[in-house]
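Q: Please design a sequence for this.
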């Protein structure tokens, strides 16, 4: 019943979203039947935000080995070329690599976006915390992000989003817009990193599944709105 109520809210903002179970059935099925990929011989990497609330979003891929964590705050692939190279070296022989990636955004039954009720907390809090913090800071006219080694991930994330500040703030839903902009960043960075370390992958195929994770209440399935599903032949990278 609660799941249905959440679905109503989620679909209002993300009409194509599927719950995590439907997502895994659809895409694992496509890999096995449409692309002749043995999903039991796959290693998954994720480029998702560090937030603990994202752990259940990846467990639906439980038949796949992994994950290797490429991501940090906001979901950017902070482990960079070294992390991606290590992941490439860990894929089973004659296996396939899967990279599941994207930003996340919370929703509440009160139809708020960018917020969620976390386990055992009475009040709704920011979700994604990193993106909503960036958004709050962008609302201050004088704020200009500068990269700080002691707060590297957040400051780097803000510096990459900063050129989109006006576009984000002028959108009807800045919370959704900053999340979309972050998807574009992660997607571009991952494709760029893959090109740079392509020779490290000794396998035939790399699968990319990217989109927006939509977090609901604890215990209720999360949702996923797919932005990119791609089976890359490594020799054509
Ligand atoms: Zn987050």
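A: Design:
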């Amino acid at each position: 019943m609660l799941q249905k109520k959440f679905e109503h809210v989620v679909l209002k903002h993300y009409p194509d979203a599927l719950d995590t179970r439907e997502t895994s059935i659809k895409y694992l099925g496509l890999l096995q039947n449409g692309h002749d990929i043995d999903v039991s011989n796959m290693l998954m990497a994720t480029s998702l935000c560090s937030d603990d609330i994202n752990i259940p979003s990846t467990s639906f891929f439980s038949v796949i080995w992994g994950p290797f964590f490429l991501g940090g705050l906001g979901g950017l692939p902070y482990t960079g070329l070294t992390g991606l190279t290590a992941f490439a070296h860990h894929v089973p022989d004659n296996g396939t690599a899967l990279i599941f990636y994207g930003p996340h955004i919370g929703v509440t039954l009160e139809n708020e976006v960018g917020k969620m009720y976390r386990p055992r907390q009475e009040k709704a809090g920011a979700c994604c915390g990193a993106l909503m913090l960036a958004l709050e800071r962008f609302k201050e006219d004088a704020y200009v992000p500068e990269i700080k080694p002691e707060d590297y991930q957040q400051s780097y994330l803000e510096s990459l989003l900063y050129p989109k500040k006006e576009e984000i703030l002028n959108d009807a839903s800045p919370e959704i817009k900053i999340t979309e902009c972050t998807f574009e960043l992660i997607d571009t960075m991952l494709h760029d990193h893959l090109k740079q370390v392509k020779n490290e992958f000794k396998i035939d195929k790399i699968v990319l599944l990217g989109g927006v994770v939509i977090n609901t209440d604890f215990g209720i399935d999360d949702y996923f709105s797919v932005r990119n599903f791609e089976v890359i032949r490594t020799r054509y990278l």
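Q: Thanks. Anything notable?
A: The first strand starts at residue 18 and ends at 19. The pocket of zinc ion is lined by residues 49, 51, 104, 128-130 (CB under 6 Å).
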